[in-house]
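Forwarding these from the shared drive since the link keeps breaking.
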Amino acid sequence: MVFTVKDMTFKAGQELTISGKPKSDCTLFSINIGHDPDNIALHFNPRFNYHGDSKVIVFNSNQGGWGEEVKEHSFPFDQGESFKVVFSFNNEQFYIKLPNGTMTSFPNRFGDDAFKHFDVQGDVKVLSIKIK
């Protein structure tokens, strides 16, 4: 499943909240924030069990090719259970509040202060999206 929002304005200082529910057999899903499908500033990829990664969140960016992966081993996601993730950013960092309240971050490798595209991919149902 792919859920895409185009021509949205998500600016530095705002919060993007995504609520969803992975399917009971979900192996992974991703939330991508960027300019378009080929220029992704934040690739947020919880992996339940995928290519040797088990219960890990993989972060990356794609700007003319994928960068170096960063892995987070705090994994507050459960198959078949609803979650809420909150994203915010400035021109240096993305800040991600995980479902258990843990905060993590990933460098804003683009250095931009506004993005207009995001998508959600994988075996997950999007329940709500809010920008404030």
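-- next protein --
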Amino acid sequence: MDGLLPSEIAAEFIATMLLVIVGCGSACGAATKDGPAWVLQVALTFGLAVTVLECTIGHYTGGQFNCAVTFGLVLARKLCPIQGALYFAAQLGGSVTGALVLRATCSDTGKDQTGSLGSNFVKSGFSAVSALLGEIVGTFVLMYVVMETEVNPLSEAWRPFAPLAIGLAVSLAHSVLLPVDGCSINPTRSVGPALVAAVSMPAGRDKSPFMDMWIFWIGQPRLR
């Protein structure tokens, strides 16, 4: 750990908060059952948000704001476990804060097209197994791109393009998984909206935002 640690923690907090506000906010405004166009919009929004935030805070932490990425880097021994734990705490705090801002913005719950601040859950017609498999593959794609563009020394010449590659990987995963489970590939981004939605949404909902949460945590990569 170094003298930049407080700035690193703040960067992870702010980036995760903004990702939830922008990404989940896009889903809240666009997600409908009428046609597939909203899938492309939300997928591009998440991908562009990741690219922008990577460029913004990459000089602090490499731009993680995703505990799956942080966990993968710790397992690959590219990140100190203590730093990883602190980043994780910052990411959780940012996710909850972002969801609170989104809740305040969408104060009329009837205007939220997702019905749950963009929380992740298995959609009708899909099974938990299919969603879990999708999350594993989607998270693998993300981690594979991260490791090969930002970590592998052989890719140093292409390092300036890493944020774009990572953002595109996020968009690709979302374009496939949004109709399946809302696409997480980022457990910390899933916790904040689910927590705030569970507390603030009207009673009588047939499905809790936390019901399928285990899928998005088990779907993280296990790097060796």
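The mean pLDDT is 90. Residues 30 and 38 are 6 Å apart (CA to CA).

- D.
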